[in-house]
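Notes to self after the call with IL:
- keep both proteins in one doc
- input above output, always
- annotate only the second one for now

Protein 1:
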Amino acid sequence: MKTIRLWIPAAFCAFLSWSALGVQLISETAAWKPMFFCFLPMCFFFVGSAMSEMSREIRDLRDQVGSLQLKNSNP
């Protein structure tokens, strides 16, 4: 389930790009621009939140490994 959460930003960006491209090809107007540019910051937010979560997990794992190494080095 965690691996699916990591692909949500990529899926959202792909959906946004494909929908903007579809609107542009069908109507050949600039109707896709407001949708694309208004939702574009959400792509960066999703990627940032996923990276922040992974960074926090790595930090927690490093802390756990450090405490286990300290525990094993002191008999």
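Protein 2 (the one to annotate):
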Amino acid sequence: MTLVVVPEFLVTPDNCAAFLAAARADAEASVASEDGCLQFDVVVDDTVDPIRVLFYEVYRDEAAFKTHLETPHLAAFRDALTLCDEQPVRRFLRVVP
């Protein structure tokens, strides 16, 4: 089964543009350069303050996710974590594609 990882971040409106730029770069690089990254969506609930940002990441398996954790683009994204309040990461097994 494929692995779904759902990180969540709370971002103040004044930091949102910079945070989303970093998130977009990580998402695009993940899909483009990682064979095991099947999907990487960034979604926003901007009806609340702070803004809630979720990533919906789908990996072929646990090994593919572990590879993702070692990529240069994720290392670069980690710099953006100073712009937000990172929430606990949720993990799921996808049973229906």
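Annotation: The helical segments are 13-33, 62-68, 72-78. The two ends are 9 Å apart (CA to CA).
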